[in-house]
Amino acid sequence: MALTKTIMEPEPLVTTSAIERLESAFANELAQVNALIVERMQSPVGMIPDLASHLVRAGGKRLRPLITLAAADLAGYKGDAHYKLAATVEFIHSATLLHDDIVDGSPLRRGKPAANTVWGNSASVLVGDFLFARAFSLMVETGSLRVLDILAGASSIIAEGEVRQLAAIANLDMSEPEYMQIIEAKTAELFASAARVSAVIAGLPQPQELALDRYGRELGLAFQLVDDALDYSGNAQKLGKAVGDDFREGKITMPVAKAMKAASVDEQGFWTDVFSKPERNKADLDKAMTLMTRHRAVQATLDQAKTHITSAKAALQVFAPCKTRTLLCDVCDFVVERSF
Protein backbone atom coordinates (compact mmCIF):
# COMPACT_ATOMS: atom_id res chain seq x y z
CA MET A 1 0.00 0.00 0.00
CA ALA A 2 1.13 3.55 -0.63
CA LEU A 3 2.07 5.76 2.28
CA THR A 4 -0.40 8.57 2.93
CA LYS A 5 -0.74 11.37 5.45
CA THR A 6 -1.93 10.06 8.78
CA ILE A 7 -4.82 12.48 9.21
CA MET A 8 -8.07 11.76 10.99
CA GLU A 9 -11.10 11.30 8.75
CA PRO A 10 -12.86 14.70 8.48
CA GLU A 11 -16.25 15.40 9.95
CA PRO A 12 -18.85 16.02 7.23
CA LEU A 13 -19.14 19.71 6.35
CA VAL A 14 -22.46 21.02 5.18
CA THR A 15 -21.43 24.62 4.53
CA THR A 16 -18.65 24.00 2.02
CA SER A 17 -18.53 22.02 -1.19
CA ALA A 18 -16.22 19.06 -1.74
CA ILE A 19 -14.13 21.17 -4.12
CA GLU A 20 -13.73 23.87 -1.49
CA ARG A 21 -12.63 21.27 1.06
CA LEU A 22 -10.13 19.87 -1.41
CA GLU A 23 -8.85 23.38 -2.17
CA SER A 24 -8.50 24.04 1.56
CA ALA A 25 -6.63 20.80 2.20
CA PHE A 26 -4.13 21.58 -0.56
CA ALA A 27 -4.15 25.38 -0.33
CA ASN A 28 -0.37 25.70 0.02
CA GLU A 29 0.32 23.32 -2.85
CA LEU A 30 -2.29 24.97 -5.07
CA ALA A 31 -0.78 28.39 -4.35
CA GLN A 32 2.57 27.13 -5.64
CA VAL A 33 0.89 25.74 -8.75
CA ASN A 34 -0.93 29.01 -9.38
CA ALA A 35 2.34 30.94 -8.99
CA LEU A 36 3.99 28.60 -11.48
CA ILE A 37 1.10 29.04 -13.91
CA VAL A 38 1.38 32.83 -13.73
CA GLU A 39 5.17 32.65 -14.14
CA ARG A 40 5.00 30.42 -17.21
CA MET A 41 2.25 32.51 -18.85
CA GLN A 42 4.61 35.45 -19.13
CA SER A 43 5.85 36.57 -22.54
CA PRO A 44 7.29 39.78 -24.02
CA VAL A 45 4.36 39.60 -26.45
CA GLY A 46 1.76 41.38 -24.34
CA MET A 47 -1.31 39.78 -25.87
CA ILE A 48 -0.18 36.31 -24.75
CA PRO A 49 -0.28 36.84 -20.96
CA ASP A 50 -3.34 39.07 -21.29
CA LEU A 51 -5.38 36.51 -23.18
CA ALA A 52 -4.05 33.51 -21.23
CA SER A 53 -4.75 35.11 -17.88
CA HIS A 54 -8.28 35.99 -19.02
CA LEU A 55 -8.97 32.28 -19.30
CA VAL A 56 -6.73 30.80 -16.60
CA ARG A 57 -7.85 33.32 -13.99
CA ALA A 58 -11.51 33.26 -14.99
CA GLY A 59 -12.58 31.49 -11.81
CA GLY A 60 -12.37 27.82 -12.78
CA LYS A 61 -12.12 25.34 -9.93
CA ARG A 62 -8.70 23.98 -10.96
CA LEU A 63 -10.25 20.53 -10.55
CA ARG A 64 -7.76 18.69 -12.74
CA PRO A 65 -4.61 20.10 -11.11
CA LEU A 66 -6.19 19.53 -7.70
CA ILE A 67 -6.61 15.89 -8.64
CA THR A 68 -2.90 15.75 -9.52
CA LEU A 69 -1.96 17.25 -6.15
CA ALA A 70 -4.30 15.02 -4.18
CA ALA A 71 -3.23 11.90 -6.07
CA ALA A 72 0.41 12.72 -5.31
CA ASP A 73 -0.45 12.92 -1.62
CA LEU A 74 -2.41 9.68 -1.77
CA ALA A 75 0.60 8.07 -3.44
CA GLY A 76 2.93 9.27 -0.69
CA TYR A 77 5.00 11.43 -3.03
CA LYS A 78 7.56 13.64 -1.26
CA GLY A 79 9.14 15.68 -4.07
CA ASP A 80 8.05 18.81 -5.94
CA ALA A 81 7.54 17.56 -9.50
CA HIS A 82 3.81 17.34 -8.88
CA TYR A 83 3.60 21.14 -8.96
CA LYS A 84 4.89 21.16 -12.51
CA LEU A 85 2.56 18.32 -13.46
CA ALA A 86 -0.45 20.11 -12.00
CA ALA A 87 0.46 23.26 -13.94
CA THR A 88 0.96 21.13 -17.07
CA VAL A 89 -2.51 19.65 -16.72
CA GLU A 90 -4.05 23.11 -16.33
CA PHE A 91 -2.19 24.44 -19.37
CA ILE A 92 -3.36 21.52 -21.51
CA HIS A 93 -6.91 22.02 -20.31
CA SER A 94 -6.79 25.78 -20.91
CA ALA A 95 -5.34 25.35 -24.39
CA THR A 96 -8.12 22.96 -25.37
CA LEU A 97 -10.72 25.39 -24.01
CA LEU A 98 -9.36 28.21 -26.15
CA HIS A 99 -9.56 26.03 -29.24
CA ASP A 100 -12.97 24.58 -28.29
CA ASP A 101 -14.55 28.01 -27.89
CA ILE A 102 -13.60 28.86 -31.45
CA VAL A 103 -15.04 25.62 -32.80
CA ASP A 104 -18.20 25.85 -30.68
CA GLY A 105 -18.80 29.56 -31.13
CA SER A 106 -20.08 29.91 -27.56
CA PRO A 107 -20.01 33.52 -26.30
CA LEU A 108 -19.35 32.50 -22.67
CA ARG A 109 -16.67 30.54 -20.84
CA ARG A 110 -17.10 30.09 -17.06
CA GLY A 111 -19.69 32.82 -17.14
CA LYS A 112 -17.34 35.36 -18.74
CA PRO A 113 -16.90 36.41 -22.37
CA ALA A 114 -14.98 33.70 -24.25
CA ALA A 115 -11.45 34.82 -25.13
CA ASN A 116 -12.06 34.65 -28.87
CA THR A 117 -14.96 37.10 -28.56
CA VAL A 118 -12.54 39.60 -27.00
CA TRP A 119 -9.28 39.02 -28.92
CA GLY A 120 -10.52 37.16 -32.00
CA ASN A 121 -10.13 33.60 -33.27
CA SER A 122 -6.60 33.92 -34.62
CA ALA A 123 -5.15 35.17 -31.35
CA SER A 124 -6.97 32.47 -29.38
CA VAL A 125 -5.63 29.69 -31.59
CA LEU A 126 -2.06 30.97 -31.29
CA VAL A 127 -2.20 31.51 -27.53
CA GLY A 128 -3.65 28.02 -27.19
CA ASP A 129 -0.58 26.77 -29.06
CA PHE A 130 1.61 28.79 -26.68
CA LEU A 131 -0.01 27.11 -23.67
CA PHE A 132 0.54 23.67 -25.21
CA ALA A 133 4.22 24.56 -25.68
CA ARG A 134 4.50 25.68 -22.07
CA ALA A 135 2.87 22.42 -20.98
CA PHE A 136 5.43 20.35 -22.85
CA SER A 137 8.29 22.36 -21.38
CA LEU A 138 7.01 21.61 -17.89
CA MET A 139 6.64 17.91 -18.70
CA VAL A 140 10.25 17.72 -19.84
CA GLU A 141 11.42 19.44 -16.66
CA THR A 142 10.08 16.58 -14.54
CA GLY A 143 12.71 14.34 -16.12
CA SER A 144 10.26 11.45 -16.54
CA LEU A 145 9.83 9.92 -19.97
CA ARG A 146 6.76 8.02 -18.78
CA VAL A 147 5.12 11.24 -17.66
CA LEU A 148 5.93 12.78 -21.04
CA ASP A 149 4.49 9.73 -22.78
CA ILE A 150 1.26 9.81 -20.74
CA LEU A 151 0.56 13.53 -21.07
CA ALA A 152 1.68 13.80 -24.70
CA GLY A 153 -0.53 10.83 -25.48
CA ALA A 154 -3.41 12.43 -23.63
CA SER A 155 -3.00 15.63 -25.66
CA SER A 156 -3.28 13.64 -28.89
CA ILE A 157 -6.28 11.66 -27.66
CA ILE A 158 -8.08 14.84 -26.57
CA ALA A 159 -7.58 16.36 -30.03
CA GLU A 160 -8.82 13.16 -31.68
CA GLY A 161 -11.90 13.21 -29.47
CA GLU A 162 -12.69 16.78 -30.42
CA VAL A 163 -12.29 16.01 -34.11
CA ARG A 164 -14.54 12.95 -33.76
CA GLN A 165 -17.19 15.09 -32.08
CA LEU A 166 -16.93 17.68 -34.83
CA ALA A 167 -17.36 14.95 -37.44
CA ALA A 168 -20.41 13.66 -35.55
CA ILE A 169 -22.30 16.98 -35.61
CA ALA A 170 -25.96 16.27 -36.44
CA ASN A 171 -25.17 12.57 -36.94
CA LEU A 172 -28.42 10.94 -35.83
CA ASP A 173 -26.95 7.48 -36.37
CA MET A 174 -24.37 7.86 -33.63
CA SER A 175 -24.88 5.24 -30.92
CA GLU A 176 -24.52 5.76 -27.19
CA PRO A 177 -21.33 3.62 -27.06
CA GLU A 178 -19.84 5.73 -29.86
CA TYR A 179 -20.66 8.88 -27.94
CA MET A 180 -19.07 7.46 -24.79
CA GLN A 181 -15.88 6.85 -26.79
CA ILE A 182 -15.89 10.51 -27.82
CA ILE A 183 -16.25 11.88 -24.29
CA GLU A 184 -13.73 9.41 -22.91
CA ALA A 185 -11.22 10.89 -25.34
CA LYS A 186 -12.09 14.59 -25.15
CA THR A 187 -12.81 14.84 -21.41
CA ALA A 188 -12.01 11.74 -19.37
CA GLU A 189 -8.51 11.19 -20.77
CA LEU A 190 -7.12 14.33 -19.13
CA PHE A 191 -8.75 13.50 -15.78
CA ALA A 192 -7.20 10.03 -15.97
CA SER A 193 -3.77 11.36 -16.88
CA ALA A 194 -3.94 14.05 -14.19
CA ALA A 195 -4.26 11.33 -11.56
CA ARG A 196 -2.00 8.73 -13.16
CA VAL A 197 1.11 10.89 -13.53
CA SER A 198 1.23 11.35 -9.75
CA ALA A 199 1.41 7.59 -9.35
CA VAL A 200 4.26 7.50 -11.86
CA ILE A 201 6.44 10.09 -10.12
CA ALA A 202 5.73 8.40 -6.78
CA GLY A 203 6.89 5.04 -8.17
CA LEU A 204 3.70 3.21 -7.26
CA PRO A 205 3.22 -0.38 -8.44
CA GLN A 206 1.08 -0.86 -11.53
CA PRO A 207 -2.17 -1.85 -9.75
CA GLN A 208 -2.25 1.43 -7.86
CA GLU A 209 -1.19 3.42 -10.92
CA LEU A 210 -4.03 1.89 -12.89
CA ALA A 211 -6.41 2.52 -10.00
CA LEU A 212 -5.66 6.25 -10.12
CA ASP A 213 -6.09 6.20 -13.89
CA ARG A 214 -9.46 4.49 -13.46
CA TYR A 215 -10.52 6.98 -10.78
CA GLY A 216 -9.78 9.93 -13.04
CA ARG A 217 -11.31 8.30 -16.11
CA GLU A 218 -14.59 7.39 -14.42
CA LEU A 219 -14.77 10.83 -12.77
CA GLY A 220 -14.18 12.49 -16.15
CA LEU A 221 -16.93 10.46 -17.83
CA ALA A 222 -19.35 11.43 -15.07
CA PHE A 223 -18.25 15.07 -15.30
CA GLN A 224 -19.03 15.22 -19.03
CA LEU A 225 -22.36 13.43 -18.70
CA VAL A 226 -23.43 15.90 -16.03
CA ASP A 227 -22.34 18.75 -18.32
CA ASP A 228 -24.49 17.21 -21.06
CA ALA A 229 -27.47 17.10 -18.70
CA LEU A 230 -26.91 20.66 -17.50
CA ASP A 231 -27.05 21.93 -21.07
CA TYR A 232 -30.75 21.04 -21.03
CA SER A 233 -31.62 21.53 -17.38
CA GLY A 234 -29.18 23.97 -15.81
CA ASN A 235 -28.88 27.72 -15.81
CA ALA A 236 -26.31 29.89 -17.53
CA GLN A 237 -24.72 31.01 -14.25
CA LYS A 238 -24.20 27.46 -13.00
CA LEU A 239 -23.14 26.15 -16.39
CA GLY A 240 -20.75 29.00 -17.19
CA LYS A 241 -22.10 29.11 -20.73
CA ALA A 242 -25.44 29.61 -22.42
CA VAL A 243 -28.00 26.86 -21.78
CA GLY A 244 -28.72 24.92 -24.97
CA ASP A 245 -25.33 25.59 -26.56
CA ASP A 246 -24.82 21.91 -27.43
CA PHE A 247 -28.22 21.79 -29.10
CA ARG A 248 -27.67 24.98 -31.11
CA GLU A 249 -24.29 23.64 -32.27
CA GLY A 250 -25.93 20.44 -33.50
CA LYS A 251 -24.16 18.17 -31.01
CA ILE A 252 -25.77 14.81 -30.37
CA THR A 253 -25.01 14.47 -26.66
CA MET A 254 -26.26 11.77 -24.31
CA PRO A 255 -29.65 13.35 -23.42
CA VAL A 256 -30.44 13.70 -27.13
CA ALA A 257 -29.30 10.16 -27.83
CA LYS A 258 -31.52 8.79 -25.07
CA ALA A 259 -34.53 10.87 -26.15
CA MET A 260 -34.14 9.71 -29.76
CA LYS A 261 -33.83 6.09 -28.68
CA ALA A 262 -37.18 6.32 -26.88
CA ALA A 263 -38.89 8.51 -29.50
CA SER A 264 -42.12 7.76 -31.32
CA VAL A 265 -42.26 7.95 -35.10
CA ASP A 266 -43.48 11.55 -34.96
CA GLU A 267 -40.77 12.47 -32.47
CA GLN A 268 -38.13 10.87 -34.66
CA GLY A 269 -39.31 13.17 -37.42
CA PHE A 270 -38.73 16.17 -35.19
CA TRP A 271 -35.18 15.11 -34.35
CA THR A 272 -34.38 14.44 -38.00
CA ASP A 273 -35.78 17.79 -39.10
CA VAL A 274 -34.27 19.88 -36.33
CA PHE A 275 -30.75 18.55 -36.81
CA SER A 276 -31.03 18.91 -40.59
CA LYS A 277 -31.49 22.67 -40.19
CA PRO A 278 -28.45 24.95 -40.41
CA GLU A 279 -29.60 26.69 -37.21
CA ARG A 280 -31.85 25.81 -34.28
CA ASN A 281 -33.95 28.44 -32.47
CA LYS A 282 -35.53 28.77 -29.03
CA ALA A 283 -38.75 27.09 -30.15
CA ASP A 284 -36.70 24.11 -31.34
CA LEU A 285 -34.89 23.98 -28.00
CA ASP A 286 -38.15 24.18 -26.06
CA LYS A 287 -39.61 21.27 -28.06
CA ALA A 288 -36.42 19.23 -27.58
CA MET A 289 -36.53 19.80 -23.83
CA THR A 290 -40.20 18.80 -23.74
CA LEU A 291 -39.37 15.49 -25.43
CA MET A 292 -36.44 14.91 -23.10
CA THR A 293 -38.67 15.48 -20.10
CA ARG A 294 -41.26 13.08 -21.51
CA HIS A 295 -38.68 10.32 -21.81
CA ARG A 296 -36.62 11.25 -18.70
CA ALA A 297 -33.55 11.59 -20.92
CA VAL A 298 -31.79 14.11 -18.69
CA GLN A 299 -32.42 12.04 -15.56
CA ALA A 300 -31.24 8.90 -17.36
CA THR A 301 -28.03 10.74 -18.28
CA LEU A 302 -27.51 11.72 -14.63
CA ASP A 303 -28.21 8.13 -13.56
CA GLN A 304 -25.52 6.97 -15.96
CA ALA A 305 -23.13 9.54 -14.50
CA LYS A 306 -23.79 8.10 -11.05
CA THR A 307 -22.68 4.64 -12.19
CA HIS A 308 -19.32 6.11 -13.22
CA ILE A 309 -19.07 7.90 -9.87
CA THR A 310 -19.55 4.55 -8.11
CA SER A 311 -16.75 3.07 -10.22
CA ALA A 312 -14.46 6.03 -9.48
CA LYS A 313 -14.92 5.60 -5.74
CA ALA A 314 -14.37 1.86 -5.99
CA ALA A 315 -11.03 2.42 -7.75
CA LEU A 316 -9.67 4.22 -4.68
CA GLN A 317 -10.30 1.30 -2.36
CA VAL A 318 -6.81 -0.08 -3.08
CA PHE A 319 -5.49 2.81 -0.97
CA ALA A 320 -5.61 2.91 2.81
CA PRO A 321 -8.37 5.05 4.35
CA CYS A 322 -7.19 8.62 4.92
CA LYS A 323 -8.38 12.21 4.60
CA THR A 324 -7.19 12.52 1.00
CA ARG A 325 -9.02 9.40 -0.13
CA THR A 326 -12.18 10.71 1.52
CA LEU A 327 -11.80 14.09 -0.17
CA LEU A 328 -11.34 12.48 -3.59
CA CYS A 329 -14.48 10.40 -3.02
CA ASP A 330 -16.36 13.53 -1.95
CA VAL A 331 -15.34 15.23 -5.20
CA CYS A 332 -17.14 12.43 -7.03
CA ASP A 333 -20.37 13.30 -5.22
CA PHE A 334 -19.85 17.00 -5.96
CA VAL A 335 -19.65 16.31 -9.71
CA VAL A 336 -23.18 14.88 -9.67
CA GLU A 337 -24.60 17.23 -7.04
CA ARG A 338 -23.72 20.30 -9.12
CA SER A 339 -26.57 19.32 -11.43
CA PHE A 340 -29.13 20.19 -8.77
Task: Please give a structural write-up.
The chain is an all-alpha fold. The chain has a single domain (18-333), classed as Farnesyl Diphosphate Synthase (Orthogonal Bundle), CATH 1.10.600. The chain is built from 17 helices and two strands. It has helices at 18-25, 27-41, 47-56, 63-74, 81-104, 115-119, 121-141, 145-167, 176-202, 206-233, 236-239, 245-248, 254-261, 265-274, 282-294, 297-315, 323-337, and strands at 108-109, 112-113. A two-stranded antiparallel ribbon has the order 1-2. Strand 1 (108-109) and strand 2 form a beta hairpin. Helix 4 runs antiparallel to helix 5 and helix 5 packs antiparallel against helix 9 (176-202). The radius of gyration is 20 Å and the shape is globular. Residues 1-15 have low confidence and may be disordered.
Characterize the overall form. Answer: globular
How much helicity do the residues have? over 70%
| Helix/sheet category | mainly alpha
Return the domain count.
1
Examine the secondary-structure arrangement and name the CATH architecture: Orthogonal Bundle
Uncertain residue ranges: 1-15
